């Protein structure tokens, strides 16, 4: 270790003396020394270079703290962890304190001291950061081997067929609801509420202690849960697990419900038993490469759930509620699209834009797409005053399917389909209200026009080669994500509001 890297003699002397008085292993010493070099550089940049310890002031201490708070890792240039940075600053203070106590720093002013503001703010939790989602094509391969889940897994005295159904249910709930593994493992036996066609999962946000949360789920997921509930009621389980959907292994287990490690182990065994799992990446010969199985773990299905919704263009505030995130910043990470990817997506989709009759009406360039149109709920709009107003000044109340300025592309297909369903529901309501014929007729005309646009786009897509269809699908997901974070009219999506006061 080259002590000359420390630029101030007084600092070098104190460090040497301090290092002999404490027991440090070589790894720890290296970390402390690195921190000291950064401190030394920060002082060196101050007037006088920090050479005379009697002239150091509060501003010098601030300079050291600032340098510490900006330390980056040499490996990837990312900001070092908060604990590392805070610890490094602590080492500097410890060394200075040692110098004072041992009279090695006579005359060092009392103003060269930290104040209570010199504490780094807590880091945002990155647990839910995007990027670790199991890709959808891999999930499809897992689903194709669902029968193997739990097939070789032991679970106390439970019968083989029951273990299989229980673990398969747990996986499907993880996949379809995006709850954390502990939230799935600890579901109550009565976690399902059904009202008419609507199914709701009642779950506890164990991490944030927000209990009795409600999440809308599909009929298929509800059926999966119901099937296991029926079997579970006939299955002998430890007495303390009577109220749990997924019981513990024995009465002596740590929890009344299934341990998350059991879920993780069952998942790992299942994934290992699947003969082939391929990623979408190609090797040099153009063959799909094997998927890294270590990337499949229970929490990764929560990421997949969030990414699936972001890719579908679910508005960010809706996804935030679905994920029960406290901060929208966490949810936003699933919507990150680089400018380059956005530009590529527009380059792809601008060629597949149609007019209100479904006839091709491509934009001449990506710039034309971005500058001459604005995204409205069911497509792009080319009406100049509306473009200027950012899509908020439609003179005919967004009856786009009947408008000459309407230019949808395939990324709007889900929104159009959703809108047609809403219009149908509105028409039924209008009829039930004995509304005048012109109201019902208008709704009917809109349904016909939007259906025509969607059908024509779908037909055209189906006639394209598979590669091109895939490219359009990916580009559509990118643009939907971009739009979902903007402030435009939200598409109707059902989120069940919290009934209990939010602790946040
Ligand atoms: S109705 Fe016409 S002007 Fe209004 S938003 Fe739709 S496309 Fe634009």
Report on this structure.
With 504 residues, the protein is mostly helical. It folds into three domains: 3-101, no CATH class; 146-273, Intergrase catalytic core (hpI Integrase, Chain A), CATH 1.10.443.10; 339-484, no CATH class. Helix content is 47%, strand content 7%. It has 18 helices and eight strands. It has helices at 9-21, 26-44, 58-69, 82-101, 136-144, 160-177, 181-185, 219-234, 260-273, 300-311, 316-323, 328-332, 339-349, 366-371, 384-388, 413-432, 437-462, 466-484; strands spanning 192-195, 198-205, 210-217, 278-282, 288-290, 374-376, 379-381, 406-407. The chain has a three-stranded antiparallel β-sheet. Strands 6-7-8 form a three-stranded antiparallel β-sheet. It has a two-stranded antiparallel ribbon with strand order 4-5. A hairpin with a 4-residue loop joins strand 2 and strand 3. It is globular and about 95 Å long. It starts with 8 loop residues before the first helix and ends in a 20-residue tail after the last helix. 34% of the residues are buried. The chain binds iron/sulfur cluster (SF4). Iron/sulfur cluster is lined by residues 376, 381, 383, 386, 394, 396, 398-400, 403, 405-406.
